Amino acid sequence: MSDASPALSGSISALRQTLVVAATQLKLMWRERRLLWLALTLLLLAGASVTTGAARLVQQAQERQAVAEQEAGMWDSQGTIDPHAAAHVGRAIPAPVRPLAALDPGISDFVGTSVFIEGHAQNPARHRPIDAGTALSRFDGFSAAWALQVVAPLLIILAGFASLSGDVARETLRQELGSGASAHVLIGGRLIALVTASLLLIPALLVVSLAGMTGPGLGMADIMALVAMLSAYALYLLVFCAITIGVSARFSAARTSLVVLLGFWVVATLLVPRVAPALAESLDPTPSAPSFRAAVTEDAENGADGHDPADKRLDALREEMLARYHVDDVDDLPINFRGVALEFAEANSTDTYNRHFERIYATYRRQEITQRAFAAMSPTIALQATSRGLARTDFPAHLAFLRGVEDYRYRLIQALNLEVKQHKATKGSKHLADIATLTRSVVYRPRQPQLTDIAAAQSVNVAILLAWMLLALGLVFTSARHLGSAP
Question: How does 45-63 read in b/e, with b if 16+ C-beta sit within 10 Å?
Fold first, then answer.
């Protein structure tokens, strides 16, 4: 017990000294008003971006709700017609508006805002906001996420690169070491000061975001996702704080520290996030739209192996139906064979589209893995994926919407085909039905990624950020030892 008391008191003393150093550094930062004004300007711009973005999202939600109601009215107004004709009339399904897109738009401006559904086809989303210039309407593409990913690390570097390097800082450091303070205490105090100043952006942005995004579309799940998102940003900023202090302690010349840190900032936040997607696309290219349509048409007509034509499969189905009901002609069947053929054609085309779309989605997943490999050079890569995932503005969230729409489309079209199959019409005519009554029970169920699923999917990216944090703290520790042993 007697041996433990001196060790405990020594630790408490070191902690007190560290906090004293941190408080002194915070006072010095407060006097450096230029960085303070830059940080406030960044916060104001980010807050304005969130507020204007939220207002735009409210407008989009109202527009899409109006479109949904108009499409439903037009669908129900078809009256009594041939059900298969209704399948070719089709209708549009608007995409949901993600409240956190005001903070991180992700790819929401680059994917369509609605999907037109019809028989025998799976259409991609259309009406991309980027085509109308919407993505550039807010500060020329500026967003709060971009500010925290790119600008905030630069401010951290400018605030901390000379903390332990440069003639003035080194002279102060020698005096502090001469007074008996350890290098770990001095570096730890400066790190705590820089982290404290940097992380003030997070709660400030949280308050601004909640104030700007308050509305009927913001639910508890979105608030929890927002807190998780800003926690990831806090971890990201911690990485840059630690790297900045570690490099500043490693080099005696402030200019050298600044050049090294700016080089890392350019590579990590600007260069790699742009090179990674381009390289991933070149290594695993996505097929063009014409080649995709040609492959789907060929597959639908000749089967997946190219030796199973759809006409022969339909003939086999006809013979099976005739044998099942012991008749020689389709007109003698107790069901309408036209409806059977329509069900077969829809199932065949849907299976074909699903198979080809899954190949494209697999390509996207491989591209994502390739991009994630670049996170070894840039923590920004991991943060961007985490931020977009939690904001539900990444491709998996868009894919959940597409799959929900396709599920509805298939159920709707097959309900129409079932009506044709179950009702025989007189020769030379077609069965008619009231479309609104027929399809009232077929309801569109939007698919929303759950927060637990998003957290599981982003666990790798969070682990990468934690690994960067450990590496950065390792740099601080080794720099402290180097500083303590320096003459």
Answer: bbbbbbbebbebbbebbee
81's enclosing H/E stretch is: strand 80-81
Token pair of 97 as six digits: 């508006």
User: Token match 């971009």: residue?
Assistant: 146
Distance in angstroms (rounded) separating the CA atoms of residues 31 and 125: 53
Beta strands in 351-449 (DSSP E): 433-434
- Report which of 342, 87, 345, 392 is spatially closest to residue 226, judged by C-alpha positions: 392
Task: Assess contact for 173 and 186: CB atoms under 8 A.
Answer: yes
Identity of the residue numbered 130: I
For residues 10 and 66, what is the distance between their CA atoms, to the nearest angstrom?
68
First to last CA, the chain: 37
417-433 pLDDT per residue, tens: 999 999 987 777 888 99
3-class secondary-structure state, position 162: coil
Query: What pLDDT, on a 0 to 100 scale, did the predictor assign at position 297?
Result: 79
**CB neighbour list of residue 183: distance below 8 Å, 6 or more residues apart:** 177, 249, 480, 481, 483, 484
In this prediction the pTM is: 0.86
Can you tell me whether residue 57 is helix, strand or coil?
helix
Residue 249 contacts residue 165 (beta carbons within 8 Å): yes
- Phi first, then psi: what are they for 84, rounded to 5°? -70, -30
**Spatial separation of the C-alpha atoms in residues 185 and 480, rounded to whole Å:** 9
Report in angstroms the alpha-carbon separations of 320 from 182, 341, 348, 419.
88, 12, 17, 21
Token pair of 431, please?
């069965």
The span from the CA of 435 to the CA of 329, in Å, is 30
**What does DSSP assign to residue 115?**
E
CA angle 208-212-215, nearest 5°?
Answer: 135
Find all residues with CB under 8 Å of 450, minimum gap 6, and list them: none
Q: What percent of the chain has pLDDT over 70?
A: 87
